[in-house]
Design brief:
- It catalyses: (6R)-5,10-methenyltetrahydrofolate + H2O = (6R)-10-formyltetrahydrofolate + H(+); (6R)-5,10-methylene-5,6,7,8-tetrahydrofolate + NADP(+) = (6R)-5,10-methenyltetrahydrofolate + NADPH.
- Its EC number is 1.5.1.5, 3.5.4.9.
- InterPro entries: Aminoacid_DH-like_N_sf, NAD(P)-bd_dom_sf, THF_DH/CycHdrlase, THF_DH/CycHdrlase_NAD-bd_dom.
- This is Bifunctional protein FolD.
- The chain is built from ten helices and eleven strands.
- α1 packs parallel to α10, α6 (130-141) packs across α7 (161-170) and α6 crosses α10 (252-265).
- It has helices spanning 7-24, 42-54, 68-77, 96-101, 114-122, 130-141, 161-170, 185-189, 235-238, 252-265; strands at residues 3-4, 30-35, 57-62, 83-87, 150-154, 174-178, 194-197, 215-218, 222-223, 229-230, 244-246.
- β2 (30-35), α2 (42-54) and β3 (57-62) form a beta-alpha-beta unit.
- The protein has a six-stranded parallel sheet.
- It has two domains: 26-106, Leucine Dehydrogenase, chain A, domain 1 (Rossmann fold), CATH 3.40.50.10860; 129-253, NAD(P)-binding Rossmann-like Domain (Rossmann fold, 3-Layer(aba) Sandwich).
- 38% of the residues lie in helices and 16% in strands.
- The relative contact order is 0.16.
- The protein is α/β, with parallel strands linked by helices.
- Bound molecules: NADPH dihydro-nicotinamide-adenine-dinucleotide phosphate and 5,10-Methenyltetrahydrofolate (GUE).
- Residues 8, 43, 46, 110, 131, 159, 221, 249-250, 253-254, 256-257 line the site of 5,10-Methenyltetrahydrofolate (GUE).
Length: 269
C-alpha cells in the first residue's frame, strides 16, 4: 500500500499557527517583491494569495536595471520591511550576484543570499530555500526517519537539489545526488530508502527506480506533451510499490509556499 503524503493538509495546520503569529505581531509584517516586469510572475500571485490569507502585507515593486541596486539597498535598510524577494527573470545586463549581495540577508525570503547559502553549508542558522525545507518538513510530519537512511536526490539545481544536500546531511542521511551526467540512475535510485526528485522532466521515474516500500517525493514540475502539469514521477507506475508518495499536486508546492512565509513570520516572537 502507498500512503499519499498530503502537503496541503500539513500546510493548512502550519498556516493556522502563522495566522495567529501575524495577528499578534506588534506591527505589520511587510514583504516587498522586486520585479523587472510590468506583470508579476505566476509565483508572485500564488505567494500574494497566501500572504493575504495570513495577514501579511505583500507588495510588488517595479524596478529597472538602472535603479535596482539603489532600491534593493533602501528596502534592505527600511525597518518597516521584513522580507524581500526578487521576482521573475533578471535582465542579462545585470550582475545578479551583486544585486543579491545588496539584499539584507535577514530579509532574504528565498535563502539565496551568499551569506545564507554559506550558513547553510556551515550548518549555521540562517534563511533557507523554502522548497527543500518543505521536503524535510513533509518527511518529518509523516514521522519518516532520515537519520542513517540512504536518500537519492535527482537534480542539482540551486532552487531545490543543491540546497537539499546540506539539509539532508544535517539530518544524518547518506546522500547521493544524480544529475544529467549520472550513469545507471535506476540502479542507484532503486537502492534508496528515500527518493526526492527535482528535475522537471515529465514522469521519467518509473517503478524500476524505486525500491519496494521506499519513500518518493516528487518536486519537479514540467508540462507534458499534452500541455498538462506533470511531475518527475510516473505515479501510476510507482503507486503500490512505494511506501509513501508525495505527488507534484498537493504535495511540496503548497508546503513550499507556507515555508516561504513561515521563516519570516518566525522571526517575530
Ligand atoms: N513543487 C514546487 O513547489 C517547486 C518545484 N520546482 C521545480 O523543481 C525542479 C528543479 O528546479 P531547480 O532546482 O531550479 O533545478 P534546475 O531546473 O535548475 O535544474 C534541473 C536539474 O535536473 C538535472 N537533470 C536533468 N535531467 C536529468 C536526468 N535525466 N536525471 C537526473 N537529473 C537530471 C539537471 O542536471 P544538470 O545539472 O547536469 O544539468 C539539473 O541539475 C524544476 O522542475 C522546478 O520547476 C522548483 C521550486 C518549487
Ligand atoms: N525560486 C523558485 N522558487 C519556487 O518556489 C519556484 C520556482 N523558483 N520556479 C517555479 C516553481 C513552481 N512553483 C509553484 C509553487 C506553487 C504552485 C501552486 O500551484 N500551488 C497551489 C497548490 C497546488 C497543489 O495542490 O500542489 C496553491 O498554492 O494553491 C505551483 C508552482 C514554485 N516554483
Amino acid at each position: 500500500m502507498t500512503v499519499i503524503m498530503d502537503g496541503k493538509k500539513i500546510s493548512a495546520e502550519l498556516q493556522d499557527g502563522l495566522k495567529r503569529k501575524v495577528s499578534e505581531a506588534a506591527e505589520d509584517i511587510r514583504v516587498v517583491t522586486l520585479g523587472f516586469h510590468e506583470t508579476p510572475s505566476f509565483l508572485y500571485k500564488r505567494r500574494k494569495k497566501l500572504a493575504d490569507k495570513l495577514g501579511i502585507v505583500y507588495d510588488y515593486h517595479l524596478i529597472s536595471p538602472a535603479d535596482s541596486h539603489e532600491i534593493m539597498t533602501a528596502f534592505s535598510q527600511n525597518q518597516k520591511i521584513s522580507g524581500l524577494v526578487l521576482d521573475g527573470e533578471i535582465p542579462d545586463s545585470l550582475d545578479e550576484f551583486s544585486l543579491r549581495l545588496a539584499m539584507a540577508p535577514d530579509k532574504d525570503m528565498e535563502g539565496f543570499h551568499p551569506i545564507n547559502q554559506g550558513k547553510l553549508l556551515l550548518g549555521e542558522k540562517g534563511l533557507v530555500p523554502p522548497t527543500p525545507l518543505a521536503a524535510i518538513a513533509l518527511l518529518k510530519a509523516y514521522d519518516i526517519p532520515i537519520n542513517g537512511k540512504h536518500v537519492v536526490v535527482f537534480g542539482r539545481g540551486k532552487v531545490v537539489g543543491k540546497p537539499l544536500i546540506p539539509l539532508l546531511l544535517k539530518e544524518n542521511a547518506t546522500v547521493t545526488v544524480l544529475h544529467s551526467r549520472s550513469k545507471e540512475p535506476e540502479k542507484i535510485a532503486s537502492q534508496a530508502d528515500i527518493v526526492i526528485s527535482a528535475v522537471g522532466k515529465p514522469r521519467f521515474i518509473n517503478g524500476d527506480y524505486i525500491k519496494e516500500g521506499a519513500v518518493v517525493v516528487d518536486i519537479g514540475m514540467s508540462t507534458d506533451e499534452s500541455g498538462n502539469l506533470s511531475g518527475d514521477v510516473d505515479s501510476d507506475a510507482v503507486m503500490g510499490k512505494a511506501g509513501y508518495l508525495s505527488l507534484v499536486k498537493g504535495g511540496i508546492s503548497p508546503l513550499g509556499l507556507t515555508m516561504f512565509m513561515k521563516q519570516i513570520v518566525d522571526q517575530y516572537k
